[in-house]
Sequence to fold (358 residues):
Amino acid sequence: MTLPDLRSLNQDALVALALDMGEPAFRGRQLFKWVHEKGATSFEAMTDLPAGFRERLTETADLGTLVEVRRQQATDQTIKCLFRLPSGRHIEAVLIPDFHEDGRARRLTVCVSSQVGCAMGCTFCATGLMGFQENLTAGQIAEQVHAMDRIAHAEFGRGVSNVVYMGMGEPMQNYAAVTASLDLICDGLGLSPKRITVSTVGLARRIRQLADDQAEGRVRPAGLAISLHAPTDGQRSAIMPVNRSEKTDLKALGESVRHFYAQTGRAVTYEYCLFDGVNDSVEDARNLSRVASWAPSKVNIIMYNPVEGTAFRSSGEARLEAFIGELVRRRVRVTVRRSRGQDIDAACGQLAVAEAGE
Fold:
């Protein structure tokens, strides 16, 4: 018999569980605090719960703690952790610090995984080399944030400030668990959904669903980022198989983005890795500006973190400057994200691929 996964249960569900076990409702609220606010890793740690209740929980429920098997810290202080799931498979989470001039941490962003591997097959991505293997539960997604939050306090003296679903996997293919994990993270760690961003390669139907669910209050209003990486159907289809269907090509994507903005009133972010000689010309920038005009948006230019086994290379500074210059001339809001953690293989999936190969 499969035991209930406490890490995937919200406060109402934990209250119901406590009542079913003959305990008063407040025990369920205490349990929520231990699991989702304090990030307890064992029932023994829940010291204000009666011993008998803890014993019964041990017998009838699963706390499913992720096991950290490897940790790496880059020279820029980016920290990447490899975790083992109960299935024996591995996922990654990355803590990305941003600092004030005096060295204090200004922002601590956690990049979480939503799947083991990915079915999308993007040709430049290490996770895409793995193929799809397993969906994570809401609790396993939220626990990555808890684990990295503990590391953030130990290393930088403060907790996590932002969460991005940009690690291993396609979040929209694990929609129910991803949206449920938003509740666990927001309620457990007290993070505003405005500080959380869900990224997708562009599953148009799911983007529309997310817009409707947010507009009707069923899902927390997290931000939406789209992994675009090419501004025309021909270019995008060559490197991202998702674009080869008319249900998910740029026309369908554009319609879903306009729907998202109409329903939520919030701008979207386009993630755009610059690949040398592939998508980094001035003409590409002009085409990208047309995509950016679908709805209020910003473009986040990412300097590619090379992945072993792929032919893609990061663009040089001259091409970057010309590309950005054209976007600015066309009044596109643009930021540049430099590669982080290159000396620890911090691009998504690289550590898990290496572990699987050992």
Observations:
- The chain is about 40% helix and 20% strand.
- The mean pLDDT is 92.
- Residues 275 and 327 are 17 Å apart (CA to CA).
- The first strand starts at residue 67 and ends at 73.
